[in-house]
């Protein structure tokens, strides 16, 4: 009995949600977003790794290319009614495009509304990993940089040169 | 047999092979790049290092490249030796110093040999800090994409393209670590087998450009074993689908047919499946609106079919099942081949020869080991591309027979090429124009079709003087005939190739005579036929009359309703004849997947599934029955197999109402029962209730993604996956994960081997047949020969008649075939219509190259630009076969030429 009364003076674990918000850490695994690189280009290159890594197969996309050959998803769909927020997609993403953010407030009355398309997922920011631009380090020339102009790249080889 | 010891365990293996293929056959995972089972070893990549010990007591050992070492008895080697292991991982690490960081945007990713080998050796982290080497890319045409940064300099591409396929426009440039693989300048890769670069290249330097347009990873595709529909050879392919669209065709190894390679027409010619020209809905032209649903179609057809006599027109590009279902519907007496009388007669001649049993019909694989080849009236590169590839191997292989004497093992590619130098095996070609194989040929004769036949008869006569001899052959030709006859006689495995392309029956008979004359009691000569369509043989084997008789039947008012199965008749006979035929039809029911001229005339048009949406059996040119399976269940439920529709119509005819329709029984069983010539075709693939450990074979790899999201935009609750009641394959990723029997292999994958190289794991021995036997069943058993009966229909010597030219159809790999032309890359490579004229005729007509020429063939008039082909015989002109606008010609054709005045 005494113990029970003692608890009354303890710090409350319960918070008055929604008036009071939960403190979520930056690496908390919540709603999934697609981010942009520092040049505001879409980071997602449609490599399908997130979809392959997803244990519940709730990601589906189709890659396509713009006139420079830059890959981006034609559509990108996450069925959040299936998502288990495991974060494997983020782990698999080679371009830091897909990120789980500290937001869980996505309840819906209608399950169909939990199907998010690219318009719903894409944000105008870099998310947790600022500064990374995949195409600056990838070998491809797709309008972001020319051949051999990337980070840690030599200029293209002149195949007619006989110099050692 | 030899005994070798790998890591202290004894294995009994075949002697004479190299250690790498032996280790792979034994199931070891030994990484490699430059070696290829079809192309042998060069020892360039240093990846397959193993430790080889002097004897049992040697502990030191030495590093050896396993691909360069022959298996000998009592060999002691180690794959897991720490030194060998670290050597292999260092080689990978060093190859990866310049490999770009772009797997995510690389089309090879997920089926990449380099990825597999990197993982296999354990290299994970790039320690090399310095900048990466980069290259500029080239434009290589509509089929192949070039991304040179990814190259690991294994030389496989040029070894395949130049040495194996005989291409001239891809090469290695520059020196030391600047080696560059590409063309001298940007441009289209001209070789007909360039698509194989995508599979041969262990990384993503050369990738499939048509896949890039709708990119899908290998693990995301629903795949099924299939058969190429674009020529008569019946190459085995794997077709992959995603989101209801056919995405990619890759090679499916069949040791007896196509081996490791397919041609570009087969690889890229699949876009017709996704074409907007597909027939989407049943159409009844007498109704308003025309497009109807299934039920109104049923109601309409029930009345039509139960009251009338119907005749059926089969198709050489439809499956056996569909043709048989049509035959069942209309009755055998009312079923006709959907080909001209000429074509039907050609096929009858071929069947006569095959059934007589004088000759051996080789498989495509067997043509690769022929040691003397005679080609009569066929342009192999264009009419049967893969045959050109095997003939090329045969010609290069012949001089290597002596290489064994200086103990060069058969897998040692460089040494063998060095040994053979420019020597070639004998290849003789007789064709009206130059062909691509000419560079390999010992002798080429440019003759008119009749003269080719006469040359053939002369050769047969020289081989056996009881064979009929043509009269009035000039001395030169006789000498050549004698020379060819001598060469063929000396050869151990002579091969005669002929076909239907020139529409000349005498050529087929001449070839049969040669083969007869060559064959001995115990060894029959090989005779290989090239035909037009993927099921030409199957349709001909049904032994029914041709379109001509169908027209007669209509004219006699025996019937007024016609069902045409997957066939554009305007491609089969003269336009006037087809017009005449179609005008007799009161009701014309056409089943096909694409709109064309014939379907435009239909009163009832019914959409059907293409090879990707249907299941069926085809008989290729050697009489091999092979099965193709449905790749995916189409969204449009009107895309059903022709045989499914036709079987329902048969039930209507029997008075069964649409509500009580039953699923068709096993059509192949019924077919084999009613037509004994097809016996065996029903056993080509395991039946629909075949299970392994109680499970079906999944069409989807185990890492198939997006299952719960791909249709979520339509309905968040996932629908039940479609069920396949017709085959042992399932449309899901659940099922038996091991190695299924060869006809049911939907894709090649083994743990650690994601790329196409995983086929090693499916073979009995590397490069050998698939475990449990290759796909397909030969329908012509080897019968003992009845006594030699030479065919005697020698045409008179060809004389050019003034004012009239003999028009020969010139085959083109891109453009001559009906379906592949829907791929825009194929259309881009197709020739524009032209008329090929010899220099002499051009002078006589007072015309120059590119000048327009008015060509009148029967009732048809064309204005075609002149192309001078010097070698054409006098009085013979050629037009490209079936390229855009040039259909509706009855072959063989005569034409009148008149220069267009400008």
Walk me through this protein's architecture.
The complex is a heterodimer of chains A (164) and B (902). Chain A is an alpha+beta fold. The longest helix of chain A has 6 residues, at 2-7. The radius of gyration of chain A is 22 Å and the shape is elongated. The model of chain A has no long low-confidence stretch (mean pLDDT 91). Chain A contains 5 helices and 6 strands; from the N terminus they run αβαββαββααβ. In chain A, strand 2 and strand 3 (71-79) form a beta hairpin. Chain A has a single domain (22-137), classed as 2-Layer Sandwich (Alpha-Beta Plaits). In chain A, the strands form 2 sheets. Chain A has a 3-stranded antiparallel β-sheet. The longest helix of chain B has 16 residues, at 341-356. The radius of gyration of chain B is 28 Å and the shape is globular. Classes of the chains: A alpha+beta (164), B alpha/beta (902).
List its traits.
heterodimer, A: 164 residues, alpha+beta, three-stranded antiparallel β-sheet, two-stranded antiparallel ribbon, elongated, B: 902 residues, Ubiquitin-like (UB roll), Rossmann fold, six-stranded mixed β-sheet, 25 helices, 35 strands
Please outline what is shown here:
Chain A contains five helices and six strands; from the N terminus they run αβαββαββααβ.
* Number of beta strands of chain A: 6
Strand content of chain B: 15-25%
Shape of chain A: elongated
> Multimeric state of these chains?
heterodimer
Number of helices of chain A: 5
- Low-confidence stretches of chain A at least 5 residues in length (pLDDT < 50)? none
Weakly predicted, low-confidence segments of chain B = none
Task: Just give the CATH class of the domain at 283-343 and 539-744 in chain B.
Answer: Alpha Beta
Principal-axis shape of chain B: globular
Largest sheet of chain B: 6 strands, mixed
Helix content of chain A: 10-25%
Q: Give a quick account of the main beta sheet of chain A: strands, pairing sense, barrel closure.
A: 3 strands, antiparallel
Helix content of chain B: 25-40%
CATH topology of chain A: Alpha-Beta Plaits
Summed up, the helix count of chain B is 25
Instruction: Show the largest interface.
Output: A-B, 52 and 46 residues
Widest sheet: strand ordering of chain B: 14-24-23-22-15-16
- Report the order of strands and helices of chain A: HEHEEHEEHHE
Strand content of chain A: 15-25%
